[in-house]
Write a sequence for this structure.
């Protein structure tokens, strides 16, 4: 089966999805590697990675860092609602995002004012990790670095109560960021490079100690997440 089209990754994703829905690949089963799939479909590895990333965001595949790609143990009930698993607790997701905005916008302003060399080094390390994740299409690494970046901003604020609040809700915050990334990719088909660029700009504002710009950039960043979330939930924006 050869695929020579500009939207080859969509056709590959459709065919992989058919195999899952038809029962050829069972829930929990490991699917062939990127290299094997690229050979089978006659396309480049990047096309396969795009297809896998799309199906991961839709809830059909589970990509395990260093462990391969597996069919999800619990599958979405309908392809049209492939992102439904993201919204089991939709109200709490919205509320948590509102808390994140209140906390992180102020933290970004304080971080721009108070950051030290150690804070900046940590933020640069996480930006580099995001770049590596993007280069290798490692969504797990991208998610991890994204989560840690937001935590590092709060720590750079130097406000012990903000830090304690972030740490006390770390599991919920981590899940919120992970789900936000998956939702963004699913609903907007945005690339990881776009997210990387936004994080880079936030870092630069903090490095330059531009409080207003840091506030503005992280407000825009989180507002986009809220917009995509509300749009996907079909709630009023």
């Amino acid at each position: 089966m050869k695929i020579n089209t500009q939207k080859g990754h969509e056709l590959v994703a459709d065919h992989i999805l058919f195999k899952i829905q038809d029962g050829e690949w069972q829930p929990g089963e490991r699917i062939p590697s990127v290299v094997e799939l690229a050979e089978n479909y006659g396309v480049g590895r990047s096309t396969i990675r795009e297809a896998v990333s799309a199906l991961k965001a839709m809830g059909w595949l589970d990509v395990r860092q260093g462990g391969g790609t597996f069919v999800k143990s619990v599958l979405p009930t309908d392809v049209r609602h492939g992102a439904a698993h993201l919204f089991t607790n939709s109200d709490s997701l919205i509320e948590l995002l509102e808390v994140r905005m209140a906390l992180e916008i102020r933290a970004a302003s304080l971080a721009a004012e108070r950051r030290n060399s150690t804070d900046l080094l940590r933020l640069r390390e996480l930006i580099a990790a995001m770049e590596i994740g993007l280069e290798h299409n490692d969504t797990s690494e991208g998610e991890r670095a994204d989560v840690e970046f937001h935590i590092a901003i709060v720590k750079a604020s130097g406000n012990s109560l903000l830090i304690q609040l972030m740490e006390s809700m770390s599991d919920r915050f981590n899940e919120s960021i992970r789900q936000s990334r998956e939702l963004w990719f699913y609903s907007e088909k945005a690339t990881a490079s776009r997210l990387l660029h936004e994080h880079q700009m936030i870092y630069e504002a903090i490095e330059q100690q531009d409080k207003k710009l840091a506030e503005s950039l992280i407000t825009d960043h989180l507002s986009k997440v809220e917009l995509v979330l509300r749009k996907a939930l079909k709630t009023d924006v």
The chain has two domains: 8-81, 84-233.
